[in-house]
Amino acid sequence: ANSIWAREMKEGFVNTAKSVHGAKVGELPKTYRPINTWIERETGRMIGSMFDPDQEIDPLTEAILVDTVLFKGSWTDKFDKSRTKTGMFRAIVGISKGTESYLYKEREANFMTKDGKVPVNNHGRTTIVRLDYGSREFCALFVLPFDSSVGAMDRAVNGLVTADFKKVLEDLQAHEIMLSIPRFQINWGPSSLVPALRALGVNAPFNTLGSFKPISDMPDFHMNSVVHRATMEVTEGGTVAAAATVSGFDRYSMPSEITFDRPFLMVILHVATGTPIFLSRINAPELL
Question: In what residue span(s) does the Serpin domain sit (predicted)?
Answer without folding.
Answer: 1-285
